[in-house]
Amino acid sequence: MIMQAAVARAEGLAVIWADKSEMTYPWMWVMDHGEDDKSVNRQTLQRNIDTFSLSPDLSGVQATLHDQEQQISISWNNGEQTTISCLRLAQVIGKALDDNQLSQASDKVLWDRESMLNEIPSIEYQEIAASEQGVLNWVSQIDKYGFCLVTNTDPSIQGTTDLAERIAPAQRTIFGTYWPLSTEVTHHDDTAYTTDYLSPHTDSTYYHNAPGLQMFNCLDYDAQGGESIIVDGFAIAEKIRQQRPDLYEVLCQVEVPGHYKEDNVHLAAQRPVIKHDRHGDIEQVSFNNYDRSAFLLEPTKQALFYEAYGEFNRHTLDQSNWIKIPLRPGMALIFDNWRCLHGRMGYSGKRYFYGCYHDKADFQSRVRTLQKKYAV
User: Fold this and answer.
1) Where are the alpha helices (DSSP H) in 39-91?
2) How far is residue 279 from each of residues 91, 275, 292, measured CA to CA in Å?
3) How many Cβ atoms from other residues are within 10 Å of residue 139's Cβ?
4) For 242, which DSSP code?
5) Which residues contact 32 (CB under 8 A, 6 or more apart)?
6) Which residue, 11, 35, 147, 346, is the most exposed by fewest CB within 10 angstroms?
7) DSSP 190
8) pLDDT at position 189
9) Which residues, in sequence order, are CB contacts of 290 under 8 Å at separation 6+?
């Protein structure tokens, strides 16, 4: 990330990096992203610069690299002086972790039949309860693997809330803030409240802001079967990208609508099966054939959609891509609902979970602040 030189040129700020690569940043962009006291409000960290008043003729006349601080001072043709950091210049071209990113895509461990995890990511509840470092260890595993098992939890409603709020307040949905998952629930009409097998899916495709995390804490189990199923949707997406790039593009482009209906409730939203962030990395997988709404494409595109959607489904149903976890009292499972699909084997008897969702933004905020605190 170390910079060797910074030069003011007619077309912009030219930077030479330690690896000999070069990048020229347009002058308007450089002024718009200044980091000095005039450019940024130090208290709120919001931009002070009036972007829309900047002249298209704006240009830097001199750039001075301060090696020790890794800062560049710019003298402008309008008499202004601003400063920008080498880190910011590195971040926007991928030479350093973006300030908003939790980790690089390459830091995530994808798993499927060809690269199955040797051990289930897990952590003791006491480690989470004891310190913020323990919470960081927990959320880092969720970010890396897409899920984490918490052992020696308190199998109670209070135990569930205590655990969940080590991350953030739970996200309220149509099901409430915290909710039971059992055949005893009768006030919602959903397949989840039966003893039937549930094929792998992501939750809340009918919400514009689908929950980022989902947690199940097992409070009671007196049954046969009912193992929880976890599937890495990112791994499936990557496999399709490599093997069938034509179908991958369909899954990225076609907006798939979802719905949830019951008395006085009609939720609806849509998004593609695969969404990318601005870096081009997979950000979210959404797949739920139970809740898919009716939509019609032009015949050729409709046939291609069914082929692509079916290909994704084929991988989700391949049990060699599954991790099956028999949750019992004292065990809680939390997973990334934007990455992992989940399901359940059919069962007979009593199986009582208590759970919640977390907003993706709240989860990411918690990870970032803990990373800063412990300088990860």
Assistant:
1) 86-91
2) 11, 11, 28
3) 24
4) H
5) 47, 49, 51, 54
6) 11
7) -
8) 55
9) 191, 201
Regarding pTM above 0.70, the answer is yes
CB 173 within 8 A of CB 357: yes
List the structure tokens of 64: 């001075």
Q: How far is CA 302 from the centre of its chain?
A: 29
**Beta-sheet pairing, 147-151 with 122-124:** parallel
> Which pLDDT score, from 0 to 100, does residue 376 have?
56
| Separation between Cα atoms, residue 212 and residue 14, nearest integer Å | 40
Residue whose C-alpha is closest to residue 297's, from 312, 282, 285, 308: 308
Q: What is the pLDDT of residue 192?
A: 59
- Edge-first strand order for the sheet with 22-25 is 3-9, 12-17, 22-25
Does the pLDDT value for residue 316 go beyond 60?
Answer: yes
Contact 228, 214 (CB under 8 A): no
Kindly tell me if the per-residue pLDDT of 318 is higher than 90: yes
For the record, the structure tokens of 28 come out as: 């308007």
Packing angle, helices 299-317 and 245-253, rounded to 10: 100
* Backbone phi and psi for residue 301, each to the nearest 5 degrees, phi listed first: -70, -35
Query: Which structure tokens are listed for 94?
Result: 């991928």
| Domains annotated on the chain, with CATH | 3-91 (3.30.2020.30), 105-373 (3.60.130.10)
